[in-house]
Give the backbone structure.
Amino acid sequence: MSTEPSRRSARPEAVVVGVGPVSMADVVRVARDDAPVTVSPEALAAVAESRERIEALAQDPKPVYGVSTGFGALATRHIPPESRVHLQRSLIRSHAAGTGDEVEREVVRALMLLRLSTLATGRTGVRVEVVRAYAAMLSAGLTPVVYEYGSLGCSGDLAPLAHVALALIGEGTVRTPDGTALPAEEALRAHGLTPVVLAEKEGLALINGTDGMLGQLVLALHDLRRLLQTADIAAAMSVEGQLGTDRVFAADLQELRPHPGQALAAANMRRVLADSAIVASHRGPECTRVQDAYSLRCAPQVAGAARDTVEHARTVAERELASAVDNPVVTRDGRVESNGNFHGAPVAYVLDFLAIVTADVAGISERRTDRFLDVARNHGLNPFLAEDPGVDSGHMIAQYTQAAIVSELKRLANPASTDSIPSSAMQEDHVSMGWSAARKLRRSVDGLTRVLAIEILTAARAVELRAPLEPAPATAAVIAAVRETVPGPGPDRYLAPEIEAVVAAIRSGRVLEAVEDVLGPLS
């Protein structure tokens, strides 16, 4: 899983949750930077208005799903008024049935913000005090313990959201901002908060959303934007280090196949390779090479297709952020209607698409790395870039590590969304498995980061071994950034910490920053 950034010392500016959607940037700020949240007066007014409709229906002798009935396959039972507080509490307790490892803090905070955003639309029928309590728990930095297994991605991310709701009513376990696990009621009271007693409809409204899978999609999109730019940098470094040509990245060649992502990737690679003495050294008629291998020549096509897929996923995420996902919902004209908007298929599909993209971008990166290490294909460099081949093994096993990760990413690219297991006595007979798709995408993003780190580490070594030829200014800046923590070519050293250092440089944005300090922002 991706490592979360360290907490900021200064309290970040609050995110205001209104009746409209929160932005993806705000999701990241709340999830990773601990930004507090407030709810706008307009949203609180909308919440209060819709609650009036729910309370009127609660007095109606006619059963209304989620208000005066059981849930799922038990929806046929009418629940009398004196049992409805118990009904809501029982719903949360029974649905908080997760198991496995704890879900990362950033994921739980993201899903909490997204559920709060839906509550604030006034379409779920909860009371104002529930919305305020949810926002207060987020702002206090109290993170309910949520477990990895339990959601089928339909009827919402039920178990993960139920564990959050359990903390809201003062049960279960939360972690404080410093990571200490405490009983929820103790933690709430220590922060001046009071557990909520849920009324009609509120338990269902707290758990019936796609917020877990959507939160993970938003975080992945944030990370993939930087990683695809980093992949362009890595590819350009490999082209340079392997004496490849930049002519194939020319703008007019890309225009012959007008995919927007391809044009952006090629433009980045051209810019990174600009003014490279290494590339210029073999442009003349004495160079007998006709074409570079696909992993070099087709890098913009692969990275570009990845970008276009990410943009499609971003469109889906933005639509989902603008949604009020609950069942039943309170409509603008006051009706309370059942619906199927909780089905996670739209989100699940793009989570799976992104896992495919991530695996393929990692795969082409590994192939470029392997070419550096093969004396038959690396154009004059030592086998495995070793200082003293035979005594030293160079980067031989670094490529093994890449290969192991890429193999894992190929398995993770198998779609979760094609596997539906019916539940709730066949009432919920088709589910999205979107939560599972999100969990494996997080592993995929982490794997891609590590694969690119090994390519950059290897390419930096190879480019330096081309001395006295000078690399491009942008490439030189990346190498300098790597050399801040990793020494240059030499005899074999303990390699694992060097790989981790470059992983950290990619995650922190240091690699991208080094290039953009020279060239300005990449596409």
Summary: DSSP finds 20 helices and nine strands in the chain. Strands lie at 15-17, 37-39, 99-102, 143-144, 147-149, 173-175, 181-183, 329-330, 336-337.
